[in-house]
Predict the structure.
Amino acid sequence: MRTPVIAGNWKMNMHKRQALELVQGLHYGLTWPGEVDVIVAPPFTALDTVVEFCAKSYISVAGQNMHWEESGAFTGEISPSFLKDAGADYILIGHSERRKYFGETNEIVNKKIKAAFQHNLIPIVCFGETLEERERGDFVRVIEQQILQGLTGLTHEEGSELIIAYEPVWAIGTGKTATPTQAEEAHAFIRAHLFQLFSPDVADAVRILYGGSVKPKNSRELLSQKNIDGALVGGAALKAEDFIGIIKSANA
Ligand code: 13P
């Protein structure tokens, strides 16, 4: 039985004060989430504030991005050990916005995943196809490459600790959610690849989250699918009430 994960990706939003109010709203609005792992990914500047408050809460903290190197002349970058030092336990890797705007390739994603494991950060690795790729019928090939190139060279132990997020790019911030059937099909496909790449045990252990316009009104149906083990939430993670609604639906 996989414990569901509900993760909020705040993207480039939330000044420190707003960030504190949001985690306070989550913590006091829902005193216990039940058997659900709850994660928030604030911007770097709010990490300290959020980590300090979340130390007394059930909420865990993730970074949104990092470099794979340990330290050095990489102006503007943050290393895995800096994130660990700031109190993060998880790291988002390969979000489609990183791939689209900052040129992240599957090879870079792979380096980052390995660096994360070396520093005891659990990677939440994002995969997903664009609308053009889906319409061209390239969905299978694109996702397959993201999986094979992104996850190459990991040990079975690392494989089983991974969290994967399937985020069809056409569903992000558009209000167009994948239907539960479309999402389940993609998740089952990803799990079948984990089976081949690692083992049946790894395929069984990995939590695969769905992301793309998840809201309290559609989360329950998405989360009731066999291979959907949680959600990576953007817009609806910025309001405590909405995020709590999604967490509750994971418990239902
Ligand atoms: P939205 O929930 O705003 O569509 O964003 C999804 C996302 O990109 C989470 O990483």
User: Anything to note?
Assistant: The longest strand covers residues 122-127.
